[in-house]
Amino acid sequence: MMFAQCTRKYASSVLLIALLCCILSPPAQASKSSEDIRCKCICPPYRNISGHIYNKNVSQKDCNCLHVVEPMPVPGNDVEAYCLLCECKYEERSTTTIKVIIIIYLSVVGALLLYMAFLVLVDPLIRKPDAYTQPLHNEEENEDARSLAAAPTPSGARANTVLERVEGAQQRWKRQVQEQRKTVFDRHKMLS
Q1: 10 Å Cβ neighbour count for 69?
Q2: What is the mean pLDDT of each run of 10 residues along the chain (192 residues)?
Q3: Rounded to 5, what percent of the chain is helix, strand, coil?
């Protein structure tokens, strides 16, 4: 039942993402929008005029200094010499492609976040305890109980404080290291 609820939630989120894709993507157009095309003219310094970059949304055939550079910084008789120095490039981009790529990226990130939420919240409820790891956990709990019983506890204090747990774990680790040293150095046996 829990799995069916997760599947419905996942399906509804995928449906929501698909709906957003349909709404956000613009319809196919025969002509480019004004944001997709531009003419960029880079004009270096000329006499006492500093260099400047001019951008204008014009067609490819009008991509030249005379149509893009406005206002013209030089008087009428120097316009031709100034325009010869300018380098104009026609640039074209597809904002629709950019939007689609961003939507795909956000969809993947959203799916990964949903999967992470599933793993954190639902997976522990569904997963059954493993028969192999259960005895190991019981063994560790028994060692904790033995180390806490052997250690004197002050009256009125809780037996399971964080500091005592850490000290118990440290003692267990020290015993394990000692056993390993005996095994390796005294008995000359290696772990297999």
Answers
A1: 20
A2: 51 58 51 74 91 92 92 88 93 91 97 91 72 56 60 52 84 89 72 51
A3: 60, 10, 30
- Residue 45 CB: number of other CB atoms within 10 A? 10
Q: What is the CA radius of gyration of the chain?
A: 36
Residue 118: Cβ within 10 Å count: 14
The string over 128-140, giving b where at least 16 C-beta atoms fall within 10 Å of a residue's C-beta and e elsewhere, is eeeeeeeeeeeee
25 CB-near residues (< 8 Å, 6+ apart): 96, 99, 100, 103
Output the CA torsion sign for 39, 44, 48, 52. positive
Question: Has this prediction a pTM greater than 0.70?
Answer: no
Cα 145 to Cα 159: distance, rounded to the nearest angstrom? 10
